[in-house]
Structures are given as structure tokens and as C-alpha cells.
Amino acid sequence: MLKITNLTKRYGTGDPVLKELNLTVEGEQLTSVIGSSGAGKSTLLRCINRLVEPTSGSVVLNGTEFTNLSRRELRTARRRIGMVFQSFNLIDRLTVMENVQAGRLGYISTWAALTRRYPKDDIRRAFELMERVGIAHYADKRADELSGGERQRVGVVRALMQRPEILLADEPTASLDPKTSEQIMSLLRDLANELNLPVIINIHNVTEAKEFSDRIVGMRYGRIIFDDKPAALTRAEMDQIYAGVPAQDRAEAGAAA
Amino acid sequence: MSATSDTRPDSWRKPAFIANPVLRYALYLGALVYIVFTLATLPIDWDRVSDGLSRAQRIFSGAFPPSFDRAGLLFDGFMESLKIAIIATVGGIILSVPLAFMAAGNIAPKPIYLLGRAIIIIARSFHPVIVAIIFVKAVGFGPFAGALTLVVYSVGFVAKLLAERIEEIDFGQVEAMRSAGAGFLTTQVYAVLPQVMPRLVGLGIYQLDSNLRASAVVGIVGAGGIGATLANAFGRYDYDFALAITMVIVGVILVSEAVSGVIRKRIT
């Protein structure tokens, strides 16, 4: 269970990007976070594994408080959170297998990592997962030789290699064409079920969010203003989430405060 | 319709480089005055120029035809230069890689970054000839001084450009490694090194080429190699041998430049 309490993130001295945000994700549900650009979706995900350092608040994953871990503790704790990125963030010049094994870098020794002596179990698991998503025959190919959808599959497998307790996906389909995008979304949903893995997805495509998720969270300027089942997301709610220009919205927020 | 088209301008000129016309013409005039003034006051002694011309003629007539009688000496000098260049390139790159990571602002913490930049600036601030003079004083005449000089020269160049390449990397890959819980060294080797590898190889090949050229220069101040052979030939007024050496240097540089150009084109 992931429990986020009073999470605030402020860059510099400006208006906070996340404002006292609370969110709890349990079970193997797939949660989609929607909201316009600048609503703080990306910052929210990155605050969970502290790629972005939260200003205040608490993030607890299955009993571990993440916000006050030391650097070393954080490194070990990050293994428990898998992450998938919009631009895949694969290492283009390395093979698919090396990219997949990169998910194990938090577990194996530096020497084993540098010499590419991956443990047998990891290699077996890599092939198993790659077969599951249909990229096993690419193991020896360079990552930049693959198509967008294949590359994101590598990204997903890399995250799953961590044997994570939760999977974060930051706009995993935004760089893909509609058909590939749907394939990746249904893959994420199926994997969430198969592996009993809670998944949080930032997504721009509301239709896909409604189709594939168990729960939709709507964000607007650092706050959660909608949190319910996809069916409950009405036209009016959508307008709430996406309406308004940033300047106007900020002015309103300022006036209220 | 026609009324509006009449009001639109039909001529356009590129905006002047300096918008203010007074400032612009003042600058042009200033530059012109400066050039005329410096030309008028240049301390050129025309007698010495004509003396020099006849001396140059003597040197050139002494140089023709080039003499390859001491080809053995020439070959030895070249092999020494080549060895200096290879050792300096390998040594320079081994030192440059960690230094470049230190001097990359997006990777290294501030104090390390400043230290790395400082080392690079020091390595770059002196021309190889000056460094060579210091090393010749320190370790004596010969190829060792040359190799040390070119290591410094290589570090200044390779580390600086590699550091700049590291600062341009796609940081998403680093984020991905961090989010998997990878350690510092592993992150560098997995996420950064593959991205900068083509540049590193390119720089290494260019540096080998450049070191070969520079080894001829630093040899003149006593740091061994073909430069030392050339300096000796001049010292003994063997202008024909000196011309032979110069021709071979030009030939070798041309070949090495062509080869390194081809290799660098292939690897990217």
C-alpha cells in the first residue's frame, strides 16, 4: 500500500507544484492520474521515489517512510519502486538484455554490473518477462534499433526486473502512436493483474485512462480534485480538471489564500 | 483588396548588425583608423627584410635537393615521435575520463566540479612548447619529457570536450538508473558512458593525430622525437636533410589526418 500524506513540493520560492496532497493506492489496482500540463502529475510520481525531493509531507510504501531515508537507504528502497518513462529512457547504445538487466543494478555488485556477469536467476527472469511482452528475440539487439512500442516494452520489463512493489508510469504512451499506445496500456493492465502489482499511470489520453484503469485521479494545479471510478468521470468533472489557463487559475488560488 | 495591398511595403532589408547608425559608422571609422595607424607605425626594417630574403634564398638553395642519405636517423626520429604520441594519447585519455566526469556540472557535486575545471584550465593554459620546456628542465632531454608534455596537452583538450559532451547527455537515462537503485559508479558506466563513447573514441583518434603533430614541435625544445632530429639538422646547417624531414612530416600528417577522418566518420 502506498500512502501519500500532505505532500508539498515547491520549486524555488514560487507557488507550490503540489499542495498538501493526499493519495492512497492499494491492491493491484491501476490508477490513472490525469490533468493538464503543469498540474503536477510528473512531480507527484517523481516525489514518490524521490527523483524529485519533496518539500514536505510523507510517502509510505508498505510501512517504509520514504521521505526521511538517507542516500544509501534510499538507493535500496528505490529498488522496490519500478518506473516507466515517457521517452523510454533506455540506454540506446547497449543491448536489450543490458537494458533489461539495468533493472537489477540496485541488487548486483558494481563489479558484476561492469563486467556484465548477471546472475543466472536474473537472466532466466529476463527471458521470461521478455517472452511475456514479446521481445525475447531482440535480446542481443541494440536498444535504438527497436520501434517505439518495442522500446517501451523494454522499459516495462526493466522496471519489472526490479520485482517492484509498485509501478509508476510517467506518460508511458505519450510518445507512441494510438495503436501501440493501446497495446502498452493493456499490457500494463494485464501485468498489474498477473503480478498483483499496483500501478500509477500519468496519462494525457482520457479515453485510454477511462478504458484501462480501475480508478482515475484528476489533478489541477497541485491538488487532487477528482478521485473515483472511471465511470464517475463526467463531462462536468472533465471541464473542472482541464478548464482554465494557468495564470487565471493561479490568480484565483492567490485570491483564495 | 487592392487598397490594402498598396499599403504593404514591397521592399525589405535585413536589419543592420548594429541598429544605431551613429554607433555603427563610428565603429567602422574607428576600426579603419586603427588599421591605418598600426600599419603606419609597424617597426619594419626593410634592410633587414632584404637581408633575410637573400639568407632565405641561401637556405632554400642549400635545401634542394632534399637529402635522404640519413634515412635511418629520420626513421628512428619518426618512430620515437610515434611512440611519444601513442603513449601520450593513451595516458592522456586514461587521465581525461575521470577528470571529465569530475568537470561535468550535471554529474559532479560543486566542489569536485570546480576542482576538475581548475585542473583542466591549468592544463590548457600553457602552450605545449612551454610545458615541454618545463618538463625538459624537470626530467631532462628526450622522449620522456615529450610524452609528459603531450599527456598534459591531451588532458587539457580531451577532458574539456568530453566534460562538455557529458553535460549534454540525455539525463533521462541517468534518472532511469537512479530509479532502479543503481549506485553512483554503475550509473555512470551504464547511463553516461555509452552516450559519450562515440565522442570519446573520436577525441582519442583526433588526439593521436594532434599529438603526432605536436610531438614534432616539442622536439625542437629538446623533448625528443622527430622534432629533435629536425632541430639538430638545422643546427648543423644540413638544410637538405631538414627539408627531407619536413617533407616526411607533412606526408605523415596528411596520411594520419585522412585515416583519422575516415575512422571518425565511421564510428558515429
How would you concisely characterize the structure shown here?
Chain A: This is Phosphonate ABC transporter, ATP-binding protein. With 257 residues, chain A is of the alpha/beta class.
Characteristics of this structure?
heterodimer; A: alpha/beta; Rossmann fold; six-stranded mixed β-sheet; four-stranded antiparallel β-sheet; 10 helices; B: 268 residues; mainly alpha; 11 helices; ATP hydrolysis activity (chain A); ABC_transporter-like_CS (chain A); translocase (chain A)
SSE blueprint and pairings:
The complex is a heterodimer of chains A (257) and B (268).
Chain A: E1 2-9, E2 18-25, E3 30-34, H1 41-48, E4 56-61, E5 64-65, H2 71-78, E6 81-84, H3 96-101, H4 110-114, H5 120-133, H6 148-161, E7 166-170, H7 178-194, E8 199-202, H8 206-212, E9 215-220, E10 223-228, H9 235-242, H10 246-256
Helix pairs in contact in A: 5-6, 6-7
Chain B: H1 2-7, H2 21-41, H3 46-63, H4 71-102, H5 110-125, H6 128-139, H7 143-167, H8 171-179, H9 184-220, H10 226-235, H11 239-267
Helix pairs in contact in B: 3-11, 4-5, 4-7, 4-9, 4-10, 5-7, 6-7, 6-9, 7-9, 8-9, 9-10, 9-11, 10-11
Oligomerization status of the protein chains: heterodimer
- Approximate helicity band of chain B: over 70%
CATH superfamily (homologous) name of chain B: MetI-like
Task: Assign the CATH class of chain B.
Answer: Mainly Alpha
Largest interface: A-B, 32 and 21 residues
Unreliable residue stretches of chain A: none
What's the architecture of chain B, going by CATH? Answer: Orthogonal Bundle
What is the CATH C level class of chain A, in words? Alpha Beta
Specify the biggest β-sheet of chain A. Answer: 6 strands, mixed
Distance between the termini of chain B: 55 Å
* Total of helices of chain B: 11
Q: What Rg of chain A, in angstroms, do the CA atoms define?
A: 19 Å
Output the strand order for the largest sheet of chain A: 6-7-8-3-9-10
Structural class of chain B: mainly alpha
Query: What's the end-to-end separation of chain A, in Å?
Result: 33 Å
Q: Looking at the structure, what is the overall shape of chain B?
A: extended
The whole-angstrom Rg of chain B is 27 Å
Number of domains of chain A: 1
Compressed to H and E, one letter per element, the order of chain B equals HHHHHHHHHHH
Protein name (chain A): Phosphonate ABC transporter, ATP-binding protein
Keywords (chain A): ATP-binding, Cell inner membrane, Cell membrane, Membrane, Nucleotide-binding, Translocase, Transport
InterPro entries (chain A): AAA+_ATPase, ABC_transporter-like_ATP-bd, ABC_transporter-like_CS, ABC_transpr_PhnC, MetN_ABC_transporter-like, P-loop_NTPase
Organism (chain A): Salipiger bermudensis (strain DSM 26914 / JCM 13377 / KCTC 12554 / HTCC2601)
